[in-house]
Every structure is written in C-alpha cells, then in structure tokens.
Design a protein that fits this description.
CATH architecture of chain A: 3-Layer(aba) Sandwich
Number of helices of chain A: 8
Structural class of chain A: alpha/beta
Radius of gyration of chain A: 18 Å
Shape of chain B: elongated
Strand content of chain B: under 5%
Largest interface: A-B, 39 and 28 residues
Distance between the termini of chain B: 26 Å
Strand content of chain A: 15-25%
Largest sheet of chain A: 6 strands, mixed
Low-confidence stretches of chain A: none
Largest sheet of chain B: 4 strands, mixed
CATH class of chain A: Alpha Beta
Low-confidence stretches of chain B: none
Order of helices and strands of chain A: EEEHEEEHHHEHEHEEHH
Number of domains of chain B: 2
Helix content of chain A: 25-40%
Order of helices and strands of chain B: HHEHEHEHEHHHHHHHHHHH
Radius of gyration of chain B: 33 Å
Strand order of the largest sheet of chain A: 6-7-8-3-9-10
CATH superfamily of chain A: P-loop containing nucleotide triphosphate hydrolases
Distance between the termini of chain A: 34 Å
Mean pLDDT of chain A: 91
Oligomer: heterodimer
Chain lengths: 248, 435
C-alpha cells in the first residue's frame, strides 16, 4: 500500500535522511524507531508531503506522490507529534475545519465527525472548547483529526507523548481497531514497549539510514538468550543496533 | 481553487479572532477611543464656537498714553486671553507653562516710540518672555502685537499731546539728525504740515465745528474674508474624519500583523503540518489567510467609521464607491502586510516586536496621528512610499474633502500595488517545508 524508495533529504551540510526504503501493507502497523535526530520525523514529513525529498519516491499504491495538491494525499492521514488543535474552538469545530480541508461538507462531514469522536470516546465533549480538555483527551482528538477523511494510511508521530496510562491504552485500542479495519499504520515512538505491543514489523533508522527492517521475532533473534534462557528486550536490541552514546 | 477549504479557513480564522476578547477590544474599541480623543484635539475652530485664546500677560511699566492704548487694544483682541500682572509674576507663570507669552512695556517706551516714529531715533524695545514649547504662538503674538503698537503709536503721534511734543522736539533737533540737507528740508516740511494739522483740529474743537472723534491712528489697510474650503457650502471641516481614518488604519494594521503572528504560532503548534498534509495548494492556503485578514481589517475600519458617523457626524462627502474601494484596498494591503510578517518572522516573539515598530513607523509617517501637511516638505515627499499615507489621504479625500470617485483612483491603485508587492514577497519568502 505504501512503498518508500531511497528517500534522501539534506539541509545544507546536514544529512537528515540519507537513504530510507521500506514498505507498509494494508492491515499492518510498522513501528519506526530511532534515536533523536535519526531522521524519523523527516521521513514521516516526506511521506506526508510536508517536505520535498532531494531524491527517492513515495508510492501510494502505484501512484507516485508529487505536489501539494496531489489527490493521492487524501489516502494519507497525519497525526503530528504536536497537539495540532485550536484550543479556542470546540472539538466539533476543530474537526469540521480539518474535514473541510479534505473537501468534506454537509452530512458526510457530520457523519465523519460523529464516527471519529465515537472512536476516541469524545462524543459527549464535542461542544466543549479544546482548552478545557485534559492532555489525554487532546491526544485522542489529535488522532481523530487525522482520521476524519478515512485515510488508508495513517502516519502517527509519537502519538502518546505525555498522556496517562488510561489514555494511552485507549489510543492503543483505537489503533488495534483501525488495523482490524485494514488501515496501514506507520508509528514512530521512543517507547519500546509500545512498539512491542503494537508493531507487526519494526524499522530502525539511525543517521538517516535503515539499519533494521524486521519482525519483532527476527529482531529478538539477533541477541542471544540470557543465561536464564529469557529473550532480550526490544530496548536491548535497539541499544545494540544504535549504540549507547548520547544523541542531541 | 477549491472553495470548501477556502471558506473553512476564513470561517475558522474569524471564529478564532472573535474568541479572542483582547483582539476584539484592540480592533474595535481602542481605535474608537483614541480616534475620539485625537478628533477632539484636531477638530479645528469651525466646530467650536470660538477659537482657543493664547494666554498673554502684559506688564505696563510705562504708563504712557501709548502703552495705555496698547493694553486697551490688546484687551479687546479675540486672540488673546489677557492678564495684567507684575513682571515677576509674568516670568514665573511663563516658566510654569501657565502663560504662553509675557509682554513687558518698559518705562519710556511711548516717548521713545514717538520719536522713532517721526525722526528715526533709537527704537525702544519690547521684552517678550515666552514658553519655548509654544514657539508657534510666539510668532502669532508678535504679529498681532505689531498691529496694536502701530495703531497706538500713530494715533498718539497724529492726534495726542505726545505727538505734538514729539513733532516740536523733532523740529528743534532737525539740524542734529545728521540727515543730508535736502532730506532735512523734506522732513521739516512734513513736520510743519503735521503741526498745521494739529492747529486745524484745535480750531475745530474750540468752535465745536468738528463732531469727529479722535482719529484712530494707522490701521491695517485691508481686511480679510476667510472661508474654509470643504466638500460643499455650509459643510464644516470635521477633524474626527481624519482621526478615525488614522486610528482605523493603525489598528487594522495591528490586527493583521497580529494575525500574521498567529500564523507563526500555528506553525509552532504543528497546525501547519495538518494544513500542508491536506491536498491544498500553497495559493489556497495564503488566499484563505489573506481573505480572513482582509475581512477583519475591513471590519475594523468600517466599525470605526460607523461610530464616527453616528456620534461625530462624519460624512462621506465624496464618493461612497470611492470610500469603499479605498477601504478595501487598504484592508488588502494590511492583510498582505500581515502575511509578510508571517513570512519574514522567525519566531512569534521576535515578529511581535518588529511588527509593532513597523506599524507605528508606518502610521506615524503616513499621517495617521497628525496630518502630513505639518511635516517638512521633504518628509511629505518621502512619505509617498508609505502605504498608510495613501490610505489616510484616500479616506480624507472621500470624507471631509468631498472629492469624487476620481480622487479614489490613485490611492486605490497604489494600495493595490503595495498589496501585490507584499503578497509576492511573502509568497516567495514563506517557509513551506514543515520538517
């Protein structure tokens, strides 16, 4: 469904992404992991059309993504790391605005709003201003805003930062449900346990390159079992792949 | 250009604008308050029953008929609020700013002025004490005082006892004037004629043949008819029209620069990632922002003028279409100015300081605070490159100056030119990539 071929992006002398390729299939969740500055957000930004790659291509189905107004962008939903919401507007008004960006109007828009609010369990707060919401509620609404136009591919950039366990669990349930519906999910995170719980496959990026693109079992197999016979954690595998030196 | 996203962006921006109580107060209430204040200052004499009088003190240390006449004449002058106080009190009040000009008529002034009048002797001196913050009024007082002094001195010289004595003295000292002999003869002839004039007056007075009052002395050989040239007969200049135009423009620029900073805040919050990830062109995004900023700016201006029309009887004496075209062009220029701030600003905090300075400079040089005609001529020419100048002049032309539609063409076109320039620069410098 989503194919990334040899993406590269530089900013003057800084190579943000050197050479990144991977695929994402329908009903699959791929965890995109990497240390700070590894190139995860730039990769997601290129897939979402926010940044133009210097080289490489993003294929949605068989269609190469190109230009701001490419209709294929409708098949992508973005859930940014920031709480990209208008605090002074109600949840409903926020969603009405974001839906209209995809040309949704009238009954179809209202139906989409009701559907996503129900999914994230915020239907009863639709008329409240976002500034009155808790951090977890804002995160759920942030997710809902990315789903309004019913995209096939959802790009989630650290969608659980700063939320309590209850809200995080609710978001996981939402993502499981979306997977069941056949959505393809690309999920960036620093929380290894989230990737372990959700991801069908894990792509590890470091210094702008893909250094691993495997299933969880394959990654675990890279590290020998401990003396007690227990398998290594994903964090141990991640540190083995990316090293222990501190990153900016 | 897709219409649904465009309308959604405008509606959302207006919702956010009206949800911000501080922005609403700054855009609608503050310009009305400041416009009313400036309007009351710059309304001019036509809207008042009487012009403001200049506080003037006269100290008469002479006590001569001439100085008495000067004081009496100045007392009736409608330009002066006259006080007769001591020299020390005068100096003290001028220093404190309670008196604008103090005039000290020194002892012997009348006598010396009479001699100087006929024979060109040493001219006596009037001391003028003035408040340096009122230099303009000093020039006015000097001019008005000249008329009163000339009238008093000439009246005394031609009809009063002081004049006769001065003429006698002048004739007695004709030889010592140092004038060439032919000029001495001519002066003597004139002075003898004046003596003959005195004798005729005395004879007429003794027989009761003359009913004429004492001659008034030299007066200004002309009078003036003053007419304020406005948009029509019996239509007075209304200073509120200018002040509301100026303040309206200032605060619509503040409103649009605030909305420009809002774009930077949206970027900081990651909202532009959502906007850019949607299948919308850059032109649509900027057009949506421009449209919402134009609407806010236009509302700011129209609400201010509506208030001025209802409360201060400001009229659109020129062309309504011209007024609207200048107002729309001004709003569009302000909107693209807001976009420019968003394009050039790196952070909201830095952009806020720079934009405030830019707006204040623009409105100050554009004549929004005080009319540009009081600027030096070089500055008047220089401010033609300031868009606010064209906006203020265009709105003045359509309101109190009462110039027709033709008067709106140049300001409208120039403002649209500025809008195009700001828009193109903003579009080219806008940071589109959202990493």
């Amino acid at each position: 469904m989503l194919k990334i071929n040899n993406l590269r992006k530089t900013y003057k002398d800084l190579v943000a992404v050197s050479d990144v390729s991977f695929t994402l299939e329908r009903g699959q969740l791929v965890g995109l992991l990497g240390p700070n500055g590894a190139g995860k957000t730039t990769t997601v930004s290129m897939i979402a059309g926010l940044v133009t790659p210097d080289r490489g291509e993003v294929l949605i189905g068989d269609h190469r993504l190109s230009g701001d107004t490419d209709p294929v962008k409708r098949r992508i939903g973005l859930v940014p790391q920031d709480l990209a919401l208008y605090d002074e507007l109600t949840a409903h008004d926020n969603l009405r605005f974001f839906g209209a960006l995809y040309d949704l109007t009238g009954a179809a828009l209202e139906q989409s709003i009701a559907s996503v609010l129900e999914l994230v369990e915020l239907s009863d707060r639709a008329s409240d201003r976002v500034k009155t919401f808790s951090g977890g509620m804002k995160r759920r609404l942030n997710l809902a805003a990315g789903l309004l136009h019913d995209p096939d591919i959802l790009l989630l950039d650290e969608p659980t930062v700063g939320v309590d366990p209850q809200s995080r669990n609710a978001i996981f349930d939402n993502l499981e449900a979306l997977k069941q519906r056949g959505k393809a999910l690309l999920y960036t995170t620093h929380y290894m346990e989230e990737a372990e719980r959700l991801a069908d496959r894990i792509v590890v990026i470091d210094h702008g390159n893909v250094i691993a693109n495997e299933t969880l079992a394959e990654l675990h197999a890279r590290v020998p079992a401990g003396p007690d016979g227990g398998r290594a954690t994903l964090e141990t595998v991640f540190l083995m792949l990316t090293g222990r030196s501190l990153r900016d | 250009m897709p219409i649904t996203p465009l309308i959604a962006m405008v509606r959302k921006d207006l919702q956010l604008f009206f949800a911000d109580r501080r922005a609403v107060i700054m855009s609608f209430i503050v310009p009305i308050a400041i416009g009313s204040f400036f309007g009351s200052i710059f309304s001019g004499p036509s809207t008042n029953t009487e012009a403001a009088r200049i506080p003037v003190a006269i100290v008469d240390q002479d006590g001569s008929p001439i100085s008495n006449d000067i004081v009496a004449s100045a007392r009736t002058d409608k330009n002066f609020a006259l006080s007769l106080i001591s020299a020390d009190a005068t100096r003290d009040q001028v220093r404190r700013g309670k008196m604008t000009v103090g005039v000290i008529i020194p002892k012997g002034f009348g006598d010396a002025a009479g001699k100087a009048f006929f024979s060109g002797g040493a001219k006596p001196q009037l001391d003028l004490l003035f408040d340096p913050s009122h230099a303009t009024e000093l020039a006015m007082v000097r001019g008005i005082l000249t008329e009163h002094v000339m009238e008093a001195v000439s009246k005394e010289m031609f009809t009063g006892p002081g004049g006769r004595k001065a003429v006698d003295d002048a004739l007695g000292h004709l030889q010592s004037t140092g004038l060439p002999s032919d000029e001495q003869r001519a002066l003597g002839t004139m002075l003898h004629s004046v003596q003959a004039y005195y004798s005729q007056q005395d004879a007429a007075a003794s027989t009761g043949a003359s009913t004429r009052t004492r001659a008034p002395g030299l007066t200004m050989p002309y009078s003036t008819h003053e007419e304020a040239v406005t948009s029509g007969a019996n239509i007075a200049y209304n200073g509120y029209a200018h002040s509301f135009a100026g303040m309206g423009i200032q605060f619509l620029l503040f409103a649009t620069s605030g909305l420009g900073i809002e774009i930077l805040l949206e970027r900081q919050k990651g909202l532009w990632k959502r906007l850019r990830s949607a299948p919308i062109s850059r032109l649509t995004l900027l057009a949506g922002k421009t449209l919402s900023m134009t609407i806010v700016a236009l509302m700011t201006l129209l609400v201010s003028f509506a208030f001025a029309m209802v409360v201060f009887h400001v009229h659109i004496s020129g062309s309504l279409i011209g007024f609207l075209s200048v107002a729309i062009a001004t709003s569009l220029m302000a909107a693209t100015f807001g976009l420019l701030i968003a394009a050039l600003g790196h952070t909201p905090q830095a952009a806020r300081g720079v934009s405030t300075l830019a707006v204040l400079m623009m409105v100050m040089l554009g004549g929004a605070w005080v009319p540009t005609f009081i600027f030096p001529s070089w500055l008047q020419q220089l401010t033609l490159v300031v868009p606010a100048r064209w906006a203020v002049d265009g709105l003045d032309a359509m309101t109190w100056r009462g110039i027709g539609l033709a008067g709106a063409v140049a300001p409208t076109l120039v403002l649209l030119g500025f809008a195009a320039f700001f828009g193109i620069v903003a579009m080219s410098r806008f940071r589109w990539e959202e990493a």
